């Protein structure tokens, strides 16, 4: 699809982005064991062959009799919507191109973190069925001063894969949108989006809206990985399973069931993917993305 017009500003990641994560990987580990052979009782080669054949047949029968195991661990259930009026009124309206994943929850009500997906198969493999779409979630954080509000929205994806077969990309992906609300006119005047390790900021005149909601598409960037882009005239109707603009349940910064659950997500280790609404990143990214000339103070 067509790329949007040139942004009014663009840049790379703030130098102080995400200095802290918790140690440890999120990948599941499986313990494996192998039965030993008692000393002095090593079987002859001819005796081992029938045993191997029996074991292989037993494994095949077990596979036929048992339900197929899940190819991957599903993301956890999402949280109910709980966000401020501004966070809901100006949230992005999302769609997802067919060559990528759907946004899902990154953490469940019990604190279970999304395990993500290993690279492999199709670029949208195992992450773009209707269940994933129904389990989507958006995380947000706002700051208002001097007549402006900046609201950052974070979306989680199970993988970010460049090419079929698993070449290029990484397990886990976070992408972000910032809307800049002019409180005097009560409308979004600018929209910023993350683009790989950088960002771009666009004026209202370049943004399509669904009412008060900017239309944003999760998009594969050529032979590279995925990012958010502004919607354009070729994005109707939307390509998701429901063919309408999607509004995942929003969990605002002050809308979490507990601060401990929020802190668990903010400090979790998702490898090269980072959520930017945490304390270590939020102000720095707003400083970089802020449209020129507006009196908003990211550090206030």
Order of helices and strands: EHHEHEEEEEEEEEHH
- Shape type: globular
The beta-strand count equals: 11
Tell me the structural class: alpha+beta
- Major pleated sheet: 7 strands, mixed
The helix content, as a percent range, equals 10-25%
- Going across the major beta sheet, what is the strand order? 1-7-6-5-4-3-11
Termini separation comes to: 39 Å
Runs in which pLDDT lies below 50 for 5 or more consecutive residues are 15-71
Query: What is the residue-mean pLDDT, rounded to a whole number?
Result: 82
How much of the sequence lies in strands comes to 25-35%
> What does the radius of gyration come to?
23 Å
Helical stretch count? 5
Q: Work out the count of structural domains.
A: 1
Oligomeric state of shown chains: single chain
3D structure, described in words:
The protein has one domain. It is built from five helices and eleven strands; from the N terminus they run E-H-H-E-H-E-E-E-E-E-E-E-E-E-H-H. Helices cover 16% and strands 25% of the residues. The chain has 300 residues and is α+β, with helices and mostly antiparallel strands. 36% of the residues are buried. Strand 3 and strand 4 form a beta hairpin. The protein has a seven-stranded mixed beta sheet. Strands 2, 8, 9 and 10 form a four-stranded mixed beta sheet that branches.
């Amino acid at each position: 699809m067509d790329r949007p017009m040139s942004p009014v500003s663009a840049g790379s990641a703030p130098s102080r982005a995400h200095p802290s994560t918790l140690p440890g990987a999120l990948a599941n580990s499986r313990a494996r064991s192998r039965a030993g052979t008692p000393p002095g009782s090593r079987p002859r080669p001819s005796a081992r062959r029938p045993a191997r054949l029996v074991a292989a047949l037993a494994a095949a029968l077990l596979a036929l009799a048992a339900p197929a195991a899940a190819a991957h661990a599903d993301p956890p259930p999402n949280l109910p919507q709980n966000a401020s009026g501004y966070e809901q009124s100006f949230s992005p309206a999302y769609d997802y191109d067919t060559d990528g994943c759907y946004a899902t929850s990154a953490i469940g009500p019990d604190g279970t973190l999304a395990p993500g997906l290993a690279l492999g198969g199709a670029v949208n493999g195992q992450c773009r069925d209707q269940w994933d779409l129904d389990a989507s979630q958006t995380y947000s954080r706002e700051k208002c001063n001097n007549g402006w509000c900046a609201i950052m929205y974070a979306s989680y994806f199970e993988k970010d894969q460049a090419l079929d077969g698993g070449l290029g990309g990484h397990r886990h992906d976070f992408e972000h949108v910032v809307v800049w609300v002019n409180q005097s006119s009560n409308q979004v005047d600018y929209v910023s989006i993350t683009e790989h390790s950088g960002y771009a900021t666009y004026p209202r005149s370049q943004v399509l809206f669904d009412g008060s909601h900017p239309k944003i598409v999760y998009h594969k960037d050529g032979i590279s990985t995925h990012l958010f882009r502004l919607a354009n005239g070729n994005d109707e109707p939307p390509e998701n399973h429901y063919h309408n603009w999607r509004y995942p349940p929003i969990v605002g910064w002050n809308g979490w069931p507990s601060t401990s659950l929020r802190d668990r997500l903010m400090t979790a280790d998702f490898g090269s993917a980072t959520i930017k609404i945490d304390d270590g990143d939020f102000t720095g990214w707003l400083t970089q993305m802020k449209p020129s000339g507006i009196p908003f103070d990211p550090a206030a």
